Amino acid sequence: MRFIVAIVLFVVAFASIGLGVAQRTIFAEPDRLTSSVEYESSAPVTVIDGSALNALDGRQTIAVLGGVTAEPGGDDALDPAATAPASSDAILAAYGASTDVIAWVGDAPYTLITWDETEQQLVAEPVRGTATEVPDLVGSDLWYQDYRGEGELGITLNVPEDVSLLVATDGVLPAPQAISVTWPLESDSPYSTPLLLGGFAALLLGLIALIWALLHLRKQRGPRRKNPSQPKMPRVPRPSRYRAVSSSSLVGRPKGRRAVRSIALLPVALAGTLVLGACTAPGVGPAPSPEPSASAAEAVEELPPVAVTASQGERIVSRVLTAVADADEARDGELAATRLAGPALLLRQTNYAAVAANAELPLIAAIPSGSVDVLLPQQTDTWPRRILAVVSNPEDTAVPPTALVLIQESPREDYKANYVLTLEPQAQVPEVAPASLGTPALQPDTPFLPVTPATVLQAYTDSLLTGEAAEGYDLFAIEGDSLRAQIGAAVKQERSDALPDTASIEFTNAVGDAEIVTLGTLDSGGIVVGYLTETETVRPTQDGASVNASGAVAALSGVESSEAGLVATYGTQVIFSVPSLADPDAPIVLLGYSQGLIAASEVS
How far is CA 328 from CA 139, 194, 348, 349, 574, in A? Predict the structure, then answer.
């Protein structure tokens, strides 16, 4: 019988384990779903919408098949070189925010791939446009990531629904027209684990039953001699030392003991009742935590997206620094223009020209590269877009950090540094929001600061020219302002006094023609970045007298001495920390600046 039990358990075990394995193998459902779409279109780009990528849960694996051909036509059809169809196996792809993808496509026609809920498959539909081509999409600052391949390109992503994928060849030929998307599926085998566990349990029990049967069999094969039974001795009653007790008294004692036990258990029962009552009684216990109101949740959802993500912003800053470093090394103004604009570009191009005329002049200070200490993107989904970044070189603490203001004018343009400012040694950049949250950009006449950004620049310009007589002189912190020590009113007076009687100098200060960029801080203050210009005009005051030029002024003007006089214009980029409305009496602090000659000529 024991062997039969063991055999039955083994049969049950092997059957259960077999079924459990079969459910995960031959009976298992597919572990992935692939949807493919093929289409014919002459559009130069294809957009896979974020809703199509997220039609099913899980990571998305996109396969793009290249090899498109464009038939000849148009005015070049009579040209023998144009009679052969153009073809390309190149595949370019990138993904980014859906709004950015559509903005980059612009007026070009494209193929939009979406998900058909009814048919449960990808579908392609054409979107008309007026443009005939698009630029090379690889390398654009808009994308989170881009790819370049040939023949076939595979991409694995895990993006939210507001992110789309863009596919093209070279921007002129039609985009690849065979695309598939694969999603992982959860294998539904709910009985596999119980069957496997039950099978192993039956196997273990079968082994135990088998060992038991073998031991029993071995015992049965031994000697079966039986010892004779011994005669039983008669039982002698023992004399009782106790008196008889009536049945009535015996009946009463058990009742008394049960009563005592009941009384002893009563406090325990009452305590348990009170504890359970405290746990379940309505209105008793910790108050429920307040949930965020619907208005607060809507306010968070209504915030505009940030211009760039943290990784995207750091990659853009790295590209800018690399391009500027190459331009500095080659003294190439055109190369600098690929990543610089506005006051920053003008200052560098002027310096390159002066150094080319006089090799002994110093080259403009390089931008430190190493780490991005601060990255503050603007909250916006339109253009232009702005980013504030502070970079430093941890390996060389003697080089002060540098602030960059990057501006992207349109979707297809790259970010360019319009401002490059060296921070003061003791400058404390105000605390700003994380890059994932960003900050709004404020207008030059915003009422959300105690002093408007336009007024800040004008007041500082006036204070550099006239010192304490300026109307807004008291708005600024004087201590730690090294720019005043270089070009302030006191220095201007000293330079005027040092001139001989045969010459005079005149100073003119103004707010420069460049965008005033203002970004909010966490304490509701602002970081204001702007541009100032200062013009020096030196004239002889006596007939026959002349003024001499030297250094960069002589290199740019092309004259070393002039009887008519010389005009030199300097550009100054400045960055300020402006307090909040809650602390209007706090001073405005100069965080940093960059100043240099931007023009020089003879007085006409």
Answer: 22, 70, 8, 10, 22
CA distance 341 to 327: 13
C-alpha span between 511 and 406 (Å, rounded): 20
Token pair for 116: 């058909």
Record the tokens describing residue 240, joined without a space.
């009782």
User: Comparing 279 with 489, which gets the higher pLDDT?
Assistant: 489
Q: How many Cα neighbours within 13 Å face the side chain of 325?
A: 10
3-state secondary structure of 455: helix
CA–CA distance, 8 with 20 (Å, rounded to integer): 18
Q: Which of 168, 146, 180, 171 is nearest to 64 (CA)?
A: 180
Joined tokens for residue 3: 């062997």
**Burial of residue 303 (number of CB atoms within 10 Å: 0-12, 13-18, 19+):** exposed
Distance CA 519, CA 531 (A): 16
Between CA 447 and CA 23 the distance in angstroms is 69
Q: What are phi and psi of 202, to 5 degrees?
A: -65, -35
Q: Which residue has the tokens 């240099």?
A: 596
- Give which of 581, 580, 552 is closest to 566, Cα–Cα: 552
Cα angle 202-205-211, degrees, rounded to a multiple of 5: 140
Paired tokens of 448: 């959300």
The C-alpha atoms of residue 546 and residue 561 are separated, in whole angstroms, by 6
Give 192-229 as a DSSP string: HHHHHHHHHHHHHHHHHHHHHHHHHHHHHTS----PPP
Closest CA to 456 of 595, 575, 569, 592: 575
Find out whether 316 and 307 touch, Cβ atoms under 8 Å.
no
Pairing relationship of beta strands 566-578 and 589-602 according to DSSP bridges: antiparallel
At residue 222, the pLDDT reads: 56
Against a cut of 0.90, is the pTM above it? Answer: no
State the number of CA atoms in the 13 A half-sphere of 390 facing the CB: 21
Cα 216 from Cα 208, distance rounded (Å): 12
Q: What is the pLDDT of residue 397?
A: 81
3-state DSSP assignment of residue 413: coil
Q: Left, alpha or beta for 558 (phi > 0: left; psi -120 to 50: alpha)?
A: left
Structure tokens of 322? 């690399």
Beta-carbon count within 10 A of 21 CB:
15
pLDDT of residue 360: 95
Tokens standing for 458? 């004008």
pLDDT digits (tens, 9 = 90+) for 547-573: 999 999 999 999 999 999 999 999 999
Look-up: residue for tokens 């004779």? 228
Report, in this order, helix, strand and coil percent for the chain, each rounded to 5: 35, 30, 40
Buried b (16+ CB within 10 A) or exposed e, 145-184: ebbebeeebebeeebeeebbbbbbbbbebbbbbebbbbbe
Angle separating helix axes 310-330 and 342-357, nearest 10 degrees:
20
* Sheet of 110-116, strands arranged across: 121-127, 110-116, 45-48, 163-168, 90-97, 145-150
Please give the Cα distance from 538 to 61 (Å, whole number): 69
